[in-house]
Design goal:
Blueprint: E1 6-11, H1 17-27, E2 30-35, E3 38-43, H2 45-54, E4 60-69, H3 73-82, E5 94-102, H4 109-128, E6 133-134, E7 141-148, E8 151-157, H5 179-188, E9 196-199, H6 206-215, H7 237-249, E10 258-262, H8 265-277, E11 284-288, E12 301-305, H9 318-331, E13 336-342, H10 345-349, E14 357-363, E15 366-375
Parallel strand pairs: 5-6, 5-7, 9-10, 9-12, 10-11, 12-13
Antiparallel strand pairs: 1-3, 1-4, 2-3, 4-8, 7-8, 13-15, 14-15
Helix pairs in contact: 2-7, 3-4, 5-6
The structure holds S-adenosylmethionine.
Length: 393
Amino acid sequence: MENKDFRMVAKTMFGLEDVLVKELEALGAKNIEKLNRAVGFDGDMILLYKANYLLRTAVSILKPLYSFEANNEQELYDNVYKYKWEKLINSDGTLFIEPVVYSTIFTHSLYASQKTKDAICDKLRKMFSQRPTMTRDNPDIILNLHIHENQVTISLNSSGESLYKRNYRVAVESAPMNEVVAAGLIQLSGWEKDCNFFDPMCGSGTLLIEAAMFAYNIPAQYYRRDFAFTKWSDFSMPDWKRVREKADREMGDFDYEIWGSDISGQAIKTAQENINNAKLHKDIQIFRNDIQDQDLPEGKTLIISNPPYGERLEVDDIFDLYETIGRVFKNKYSGNTAWLISSDFEAFKYVGLRPSRRITVYNSNLECKFCKYDLYEGSKKAKKQNPEANLPE
Ligand SMILES: C[S@@+](CC[C@H](N)C(=O)[O-])C[C@H]1O[C@@H](n2cnc3c(N)ncnc32)[C@H](O)[C@@H]1O
């Protein structure tokens, strides 16, 4: 197995690059470089296994193979053809190419991936009189084709299906949160696992499960078995097993409460199914309640919640709900810290409390603000004469 260092790229979502840098530092990655929705780093195959198993805020780990310039389709074809694909892909194997294209030259990403596939298949057919089969379904090799204008990078995708697919969710409610975003928000909040965690609008329970996994140091992919690198020719099962066993031994205890609640009985049922599936039923408690009637667990509590967005969920009066949230924060949750994530910037104004931090993140393709409220005892409402004070920047 290759035990030399090589370059890798961990892809993430907008706004989570800094927390991913910290996660990679903790794993011992070298030459870490923050990129746009990605972080570059050096390491060996063991680190590639660890990155896949442990990183909470990465969506995939790529191993770049080579880069080149292509100013037209022929140059793309010729440059792809040059690579020694025979060292990587069996001519009777299976292959999938995932295109990520931002280019005025290659305006159709599928066409660019078609050209790439043609070059690889033509080359292997010429050498072995047969060509790999293209399939999306559990292929032997997944190539990531990244084109930015005329700059092309072809990488091996070591993860396969996106790493947000943790495999603990058996069901979702409408507008569920992406698991990587949930994990990222928890880390962005700076939670040091030194108090309770509570989500009063928990939906399918994603924030609760990610909080519990973080609190108990449960590896991000503890529930998942499929990773693309396990099909690579240099895959080492003993090393992979060692990485997982070491990480699993490091799971620990957490001395505080993790609570969630939601007004919808269906949401609570779904959250409970997901919690049970993750075997976290002893660690997370959930309640069916309107936020107005829901008490906090005893003791210092971090609140992170994702109220309905106007775009994604119908609520009778979204502004009323945000006003209620602000009132509950002020009257019932004072003395604690609360964070809200929403893409409804207008609705945020109705919370009526001035956020002390605002961070831009994306949930799926929706631009959101993640706003922090320091709920000091006797928090004052933002002054009426300055309604813009509550507006996320
Ligand atoms: C955007 S969803 C939360 C999604 C969640 N983060 C997930 O991953 O599934 C918003 C949730 O707020 C709940 N909700 C709406 N009004 C509420 C209220 N007054 N009190 C408590 N929950 C409420 C909805 O039932 C819904 O499940």
